[in-house]
Amino acid sequence: MTINREPQHPHRRIDRHKLFDACHRVLLLARQYRPTEPHREMGYDGLLFGFLDARFGKMRRQYQITVGPSKLPKRLDFRQGGTSPVVIEFATRTRGRNEVYGSQNRSEIQKLSRQRKASLRCLILLDVSGNPPLPVDKLWSTYDKVRLGPGQYSRMPVQIVYIHPDVPREKAFHCWKP
């Protein structure tokens, strides 16, 4: 009897809908998962990385980049690909802490928007709080207010994805534009 199985690490290009589906599955797992520091993003970082790498392949975690004139490197949470990569940052909403609003994620938007060669720049807002979802219109309005200030560098749009079990896919996406 022959069983058709996908390879363990297929290299699949990530698009926003595939990313939504993968993160939605991670969210369902994360609600059962109890990290040692439940109020920190890094508690969920390994879970999300493992799932994305198994699903899409060739993921890199905590990828170092330089932003602007600063000599100190910054880090992107996840990166997939080579010359036209997919770059991903994520923030969490937990029972004790809510870090998903625009003003709280300005530095993440700045890092993502400066990745000119990326085919997809995505900020994932992972809601593992167990509470009702935030009103998405109000959430998106906080991102519309984010401005990165003057500078002689190009800024690219960033896809923002709110992942909550009660938020349908058609309301989960917002495009931040410089």
Name of the level-1 CATH class? Alpha Beta
CATH topology label: Restriction Endonuclease
> How many domains make up the coordinates?
1
Coarse shape: globular
Gap between N and C termini: 55 Å
Strand percentage lies at 15-25%
Question: What does it look like?
Answer:
The chain has 178 residues and is an alpha/beta fold. It has a single domain (16-176), classed as Restriction Endonuclease. Helices cover 26% and strands 22% of the residues. It has helices at 16-30, 42-56, 106-113, 136-144; strands spanning 59-65, 74-80, 86-93, 120-127, 158-163, 173-176. Strands 1-2-3-4-5-6 form a six-stranded mixed β-sheet, with helices on both faces. Helix 3 (106-113) links the parallel strand 3 (86-93) and strand 4. Helix 1 packs across helix 2. The longest helix is centred in the first third of the chain and has 15 residues, at 16-30. The protein starts with 15 loop residues before the first helix and ends with a strand. Mean pLDDT is 83; it is low at 1-7.
Features:
alpha/beta; 6 strands; about 20% strand; Restriction Endonuclease; six-stranded mixed β-sheet; disordered N terminus; about 180 residues
Summarize the structure.
This protein is an alpha/beta fold and 178 residues long. It contains four helices and six strands; from the N terminus they run ααβββαβαββ.
Strand and helix map with partners:
Elements: H1 16-30, H2 42-56, E1 59-65, E2 74-80, E3 86-93, H3 106-113, E4 120-127, H4 136-144, E5 158-163, E6 173-176
Parallel strand pairs: 3-4, 4-5
Antiparallel strand pairs: 1-2, 2-3, 5-6
Helix pairs in contact: 1-2
